[in-house]
C-alpha cells in the first residue's frame, strides 16, 4: 500500500520532470525554421485558463498544445490553428500542465 508520504514524493518527482521539459524542447527548437524561431524569440507564448478554455497568445501556427495531468499523463493534444485563440477543453476540473513547444505553464481548469 502507498503511504501519503510516498504519493507526495511521486508528485514532486513528476513536477520536477515537467519543469525539465523545456530543456528537451529547447533542443528541438534549434531545428525549427528561422521564421518560427524568430517568433519564439521576440514574443513569448502566453498561456492562461478560465472555466474550461485555454487561452493562447503568440503561439506558432501548427504547433501542438499539450495538456498533462499533474502526474505526467498526457490528457489532450490540440493543434494550434491561430497565433492567438481560445481552445475549449472538455476535461475534468483540476490542475494541469500545459506545454506549447518549449513553453510550459501550470493552470487550473475550473
Write a short abstract of this structure:
This protein is an alpha+beta fold and about 110 residues long. The chain has two helices and seven strands, in the order ααβββββββ.
Describe this structure in words.
This protein has one domain: Sandwich (Immunoglobulin-like), CATH 2.60.40. 32% of the residues lie in helices and 36% in strands. The chain has two helices and seven strands. It has helices spanning 4-29, 34-42; strands at 46-50, 53-57, 64-69, 74-79, 85-88, 94-100, 103-109. It has a four-stranded antiparallel sheet with strand order 4-3-6-7, with helices on one face. It has a three-stranded antiparallel sheet with strand order 1-2-5, with no helix packed on it. The longest helix is centred in the N-terminal third of the chain and has 26 residues, at 4-29. The termini are far apart. The mean pLDDT is 80.
Please render the helix and strand layout as text.
Blueprint lengths: L3 H26 L4 H9 L3 E5 L2 E5 L6 E6 L4 E6 L5 E4 L5 E7 L2 E7 L1
Antiparallel strand pairs: 1-2, 2-5, 3-4, 3-6, 6-7
Essential attributes:
110 residues; alpha+beta; Immunoglobulin-like; four-stranded antiparallel beta sheet; three-stranded antiparallel beta sheet; 2 helices; 7 strands
